[in-house]
Design goal:
Oligomer: single chain
Order of helices and strands: HHHHH
Shape: extended
Strand content: under 5%
């Protein structure tokens, strides 16, 4: 079904990712994004320079998402990211623990919600198809 919806190049990327292959053929290089040096960071500490690089990388990723998605999709993606960040912070404050495990838990919860939504949409689509089929049969 995805093959019918997505452009071929994007579908091929999905297939490769599902097979466990990396999204990009070469590792992401911060120098390619203009983030490898700290010229724009002035006399900042190493931690601050890292934060500047991460912020610039995030901005670059957001721009990439905006180029390849509709405004509604971008809003949904960024909303999901913000919600997950908030959930992670709340779990850290409330329970503590390993950050990677907390992130994995929050992400799994999001994926479960997404699957439930998709299943609901599919069930609704099947019901609509049955109604259309019944209407055609009566004619």
């Amino acid at each position: 079904m995805l093959e019918q919806i997505l452009p071929k190049h994007l579908f091929d990327k999905v297939v490769n990712m599902k097979a466990g292959k990396p999204l990009h053929s070469k590792p992401l290089n911060l120098d390619d994004l203009g983030l490898g040096n700290s010229e724009g960071a002035g006399g900042l500490s190493d931690q601050s320079k890292d934060n500047v690089k991460l912020d610039a990388l995030y901005d670059s990723m957001v721009e990439s998402v905006k180029k390849s998605n509709t405004p509604e999709q971008v809003e949904a993606i960024l909303g999901t990211i913000e919600r997950e960040q908030q959930e992670v912070m709340e779990m850290i404050e409330r329970e503590g623990g390993d950050l990677d495990e907390i992130i994995a838990t929050v992400r799994a919860r999001t994926r479960q919600r997404q699957m439930e939504i998709l299943e609901g949409l599919e069930k609704h689509r099947i019901q609509d198809a049955e109604i259309i089929s019944e209407t055609k049969d009566k004619k």
